Amino acid sequence: MRLRVDHTTHYHFDGHVAYALQQLRLTPKERPGQQLIHDWTIAVEGGEHQLHYTDHQGNGVDLVAVHGGARELILRCTGDIELVTWDGVIGAHRGVMPLWTFLRPTPLTRAGRGVRALTAGLGRDFASDIERAHALSVLILDKLPYRIGVTDAETTAEQALAGEGGVCQDHSHIFIAAMRHLGHPARYVSGYLMMNDRTQQDATHAWAEAYFDHIGWIGFDVSNGHSPDQRYIRVATGLDYQGAAPVRGMRYGGAQENLVVQLQVQQ
C-alpha cells in the first residue's frame, strides 16, 4: 500500500519574534516494510532550514531557525510512503541505544501508585507476556476513555490515569510505564495513521512499542484497540513524547503563538 501524506503546521505569532529554533522529527523511519519513501520533502516559510541529522534513537531531525521579526512560520511535509502488512511486529532491536535504556522511567512515564495498581489488576492467567500486554491495552482504554482537551503535553502517566480521559499520548505513556514496571523495555512512537472514515485530520498519531524475547519489538495502539498495520507510518521513537515529538522548539521574545495543524493521510 502506498500512502500520501500532506502535513502543514502553521504558527501565528501575535508579535515579532526575535529568535526561535524549531526541532522537527517529521521524516519517516525506514524499516522492514517501510523502506520506500518517495519524494519526502519539508518546505519552510518564515524560517530557514539549518541542518539535518540522525539522533541517538535513529530519528531524522531537522533544525529550522525562524527569521528574526517573523510573524508566522509554516512547515509543510509531503511525500508518499510504501508500506506492507506487518501486523505490529517490528522485530529485532537495532540502533545504538541498549535495550536496558528502554526500561528507564522518565518524568512522563514513571510508574506510581496508579500504574502499579493497574498492572496488579491484570492478574496472572495469561498464556504469554504478549497476551498480557494486549489485555493491558484493553484495560487502559477501559480506565481512561479517549477524550480531547482534558490533558496536555506535560501530563504524566499517573496524572492522566487519575483523570477523566485522555488521548493517544496519554494512553501510550500509561502503557509504557506499565510495561517497564512489568520488566519489558518499552518506547513511544509518533507517526501518521490513515483513518478509514476520513481524510482530513487535525493531529498526528502516537502509539507504543514493547520488547519481547525471541520476537523483538511489537506495536500497541491503545487508543484504537489493536496493533499497528499497513495504515500506520512510523516517524520517530523515544522514551516518551518529549523524545519523539513531531515539533519542539524554543523562542525568545514575548510573542504568543497560535498553532493550526492541517493533515491529510490517504491511499
TrEMBL record:
Residues 160-224 form the Transglutaminase-like domain. Signal peptide: none annotated. Pfam families: Bact_transglu_N, Transglut_core. Coiled coil: none annotated. It comes from the Bacteria. SUPFAM superfamilies: Cysteine proteinases. This is Transglutaminase. It comes from Sphingopyxis lindanitolerans.
